[in-house]
Specification:
371 residues, eight-stranded mixed β-sheet, 2 domains, single chain, alpha/beta, Rossmann fold, globular
Length: 371
């Protein structure tokens, strides 16, 4: 199979879908790997590194899209990219379709088979291709919040960890999953006062044991959420409903009662965000202020550390990618975890959460794959 790797074109996105090491694995399996020139430069991989791994460098993204059977990316295709996709081709990348009707329409019209990293599952009920970027984003969210709390960024002028004799900042993490756990870990490490809210008692017990009283856990009722958010210096939105739009948990009314100069970092922004006032931003212009509260809502947070992120992502995506290259659609039919990753196939939406979020017709994956 021909495996294609275009250069990412989303704003400030420097990750690469396949690293040179992963390219070598595809080649070892007998596949041809086509890499757009310069695709890996943002994360420190030269064209020469890919050539040494056995890949072929091509001059443009058009060369990748027109020749590849399997296109491996990082971020969702942009309009100029989805226009080049075609029926019979497999797209393997993050999609985040629930808040993005235009992309969904573009993929439907292309006839492509689109597999979303964020809905591929594992035997433990986890999301193994989302997890590494959730780890990165969770940790970055605290760095972003700490920077945004500085006065020149519009924040309170607060050092998150405090100093002897001065209280540390209060960080409230909404959601105790992979993002929330990693955010809490970083905040605790900085010496902040940390509260994690979640609706799973078993998960709260795990977090309580993990942090050994260095972070407080609290069951997330509406009242508890409001109390903690209003008193926070920084709030991290770490809520995930796989495939679906994130719930708007923090309302504009709550925001009005937060401290002037407080910070919110919405890691759920890829799925629409969990703050009512959230809108996507970029690394070039990462924040904006509403009612005196600094909003950090960068939609591709791990893109800030593309070297770490590309390696971490490839560690997770490579086994499934090799299965797709080796077996094509048969890999999707035979592996229910990959089947859960199937979002669009030959003009229909095959993920129920995406279909419900967008109000469009849902076609079960097995039914779609039968044709």
């Amino acid at each position: 199979m021909r495996v294609g790797v275009p250069k990412e074109i989303k704003s400030d996105e420097n990750r690469v879908g396949i690293t040179p090491g992963s390219a070598g694995e595809y080649v070892a399996h007998g596949h041809e790997v086509l890499v757009e020139t310069g695709a890996g430069l943002g994360m420190g991989a030269s064209d020469g590194d890919f050539i040494a791994a056995g890949a072929t460098i091509v001059a443009s993204a058009a060369d990748v899209f027109s020749n590849a059977d399997l296109v491996v990316k990082v971020k969702e295709p942009q309009p100029v990219e989805w226009a080049q996709l075609r029926e019979g081709q497999i797209l393997y990348t993050y999609l985040h379709l629930a808040p993005d009707p235009e992309q969904t329409k573009g993929l439907i019209e292309s006839g492509v088979t689109a597999i979303a990293y964020e809905t591929v599952t594992d035997d433990h009920g986890g999301l193994p291709l989302l997890a590494p970027m959730s780890e990165v984003a969770g940790r970055l969210s605290i760095q972003a919040a700490a920077h945004s709390l500085e006065k020149h960024s519009g924040g309170l002028g607060l050092l998150l960890g405090g100093v002897p004799g001065v209280k540390p900042g209060k960080v409230v993490v909404i959601g105790g999953g992979v993002v929330g756990t990693n955010a809490a870990r970083m905040a605790v490490g900085l010496g902040a006062d940390v509260v994690v809210l979640d609706r799973s008692l078993p998960r709260l017990r795990q977090l309580d044991e993990l942090f050994d009283n260095r972070a407080m856990t609290r069951y997330s009722t509406r009242e508890a959420l409001e109390e903690e958010v209003i008193s926070a210096d920084a709030v991290i939105g770490a809520v995930l409903l796989p495939g679906a739009s994130a719930p708007k948990l923090v309302t504009r009314d709550m925001l009005k009662r937060m401290k002037d100069g407080a910070v919110i970092a919405d890691v759920a922004i890829d799925q629409g965000g969990c703050f009512e006032t959230s809108k996507p931003t970029t690394h070039a212009d990462p924040t904006y202020i509403v009612n005196g509260v600094v909003h950090y809502c960068v939609a591709n947070m791990p893109g800030a550390v593309p070297r770490t992120s590309s390696f971490a992502l490839n560690n997770a995506t490579l086994p499934f990618g090799l299965a797709l290259a080796d077996q094509g659609l048969e890999a999707v039919r035979q592996n229910h975890h990959l089947k859960n990753g199937l979002n669009v196939h030959r003009g229909v939406v095959t993920n129920i959460a995406v279909a419900e979020s967008l109000g469009i017709t849902y076609t079960p994956a097995d039914q779609a794959l039968a044709h």
